[in-house]
Amino acid sequence: AKFVNKKRRCIQKCLKGGRKNGGPYAECGAPYGGATAGCIQDAEKGAEAKARARNARACAKECPACYDAGGNCPDGAGFVAAVETNVDQTDPLVHCLEAAGLTPTKAEAKCEDGVAKHLAKFAGSKGKCYDKCVDREFKGKIPAGSCTAGSPSDPDTQACIQAAEDKAAGKIDDVCEPSGAKPACYPPERDSGADWVGVVENLVDAQTRLVYCSSPRG
């Protein structure tokens, strides 16, 4: 989640600079370029490197066997790459005007940026719901199998996820529903805050299955 937010800020800075000049925006999207590429890919200070370093510190004592089997020991490089792909594929949908080489109005830019910001926050919030669930499962406070990604049976986790969904959807609607704010390139399937939350929902679930890949009692 920290990596998603850091990479989002790298992209955001590029978009902000491009909007001042009416474009171009080529360096703001994959494969990136210029300062944006450095912000994301620098071997020491880039978002990717920092994410891998955090993972390595967290797994230094013991890297799970299922991580090793997936090529994610010692630093979760595969996790970072998977999340990277999700961001690269999702951001052009969010900043669809710039992806088409167009400069948004102030209201449209606020909508796009709000979608990006609140989806990133939602990814982190939903991840924390699963973190808490698995921690309680590990301690034997709830039955094993209560935290299945995508369909958790634990009521508290269900409520936590629902609250995160509702908050993100509401925040997105706040910035995109005013007249003239919603870009014309947002299709019907991405026409509301709830629709946008649905875009990210399955990505978080898929990644969570990989993060918690072994039984807490295994």
Structure summarized in a few sentences:
The protein is mainly alpha-helical and 218 residues long. Helices cover 64% and strands 0% of the residues.
Task: Name its key features.
218 residues, mainly alpha
Blueprint (SSEs and pairs):
Blueprint: H1 2-20, H2 34-41, H3 47-58, H4 65-69, H5 77-94, H6 96-99, H7 106-138, H8 155-176, H9 193-211
Helix pairs in contact: 1-2, 1-3, 1-5, 1-7, 5-9, 7-8, 7-9, 8-9
Structure description:
By secondary structure, this protein is mainly α. It has 9 helices and no strands. It has helices at residues 2-20, 34-41, 47-58, 65-69, 77-94, 96-99, 106-138, 155-176, 193-211. The longest helix has 33 residues, at 106-138. The chain starts with a helix and ends in a 7-residue tail after the last helix.
- Uncertain ranges: none
Number of strands: 0
Judged by helices, strands and strand pairing, the structural class is mainly alpha
Helix percentage range? 55-70%
First-to-last CA distance: 26 Å
Please tell me what the overall shape is: flat
What number is the mean pLDDT?
A: 95
Instruction: Please state the CA-atom Rg, rounded to the nearest Å.
Output: 18 Å
In terms of DSSP E residues, the strand content is: under 5%
Largest sheet: none
Order of H and E elements: HHHHHHHHH
Number of helices: 9
